[in-house]
Amino acid sequence: MRRLDAHRDPRGLVAECSRSDRQIADAPRQWTLFTSAAGVMRGVHVHPRHDDYVVLISGAMCVGLRDLRPDAPSEGRAAMVVLRGDAPTALFIPHGVAHGMLSHAVSVFVIGTSHHYDRDDELGCHRRDPDLGIAWPVSSAQLSERDAALPPVRALVGRIAPWRP
């Protein structure tokens, strides 16, 4: 996670989201724009190949994370990151790290990905699975039909490649 250097004046805000001299992963090959209503949950998803680079434009959301990469120094750890549009921040999510995004307010965000979208690189697990270990701040959320039907995290065992430094 990296706080963006924001420059504010009476007109608004300017912040560099990405620079070629500060890349932390492969340069994003695709950028996708999302809007979510308050109470919407996207995920929990995990990508075996592509990395995500998330920048919240406006609103507020929490991102639940769980490292599923075998042999990673943070394997099995879960975390919750809060993003707010008034505090511009870029969040890097490496492939193999499960993540779900819960919007607390109407939110606009972009996700840059290291590879073009590929349905075969879009795995997931149910957000309320206790084995996931993510403590969501609310008990219910609006989910897509697909996300509501995701299997438990144990269904992903063996589908995520071991971590390589």
What do these coordinates show?
The protein has a domain at about 25-115: Jelly Rolls (Sandwich). It has a 5-stranded antiparallel beta sheet with strand order 1-9-6-11-4, with no helix packed on it. A 5-stranded antiparallel beta sheet has the order 8-7-10-5-12, with no helix packed on it. A two-stranded antiparallel ribbon has the order 2-3. It is built from 1 helix and 12 strands, in the order E-E-E-E-E-E-E-E-E-E-E-E-H. By secondary structure, it is mostly beta strands. The two termini are about 20 Å apart. A hairpin with a 2-residue loop joins strand 2 (about 5-10) and strand 3 (about 10-15). The mean pLDDT is about 90.
Q: Please, what is the average pLDDT?
A: 89
Tell me the strand percentage band: 35-45%
Structural class: mainly beta
- Main-sheet strand order equals 1-9-6-11-4
CATH architecture of the domain at 26-117: Sandwich
Number of strands: 12
| The CATH superfamily title of the domain at 26-117 | Jelly Rolls
Which of globular, elongated, flat, extended, rod-shaped describes the shape?
globular
Taking pLDDT < 50 over at least 5 consecutive residues as the criterion, the unreliable ranges are none
Please give the largest β-sheet.
5 strands, antiparallel
Helix segment tally: 1
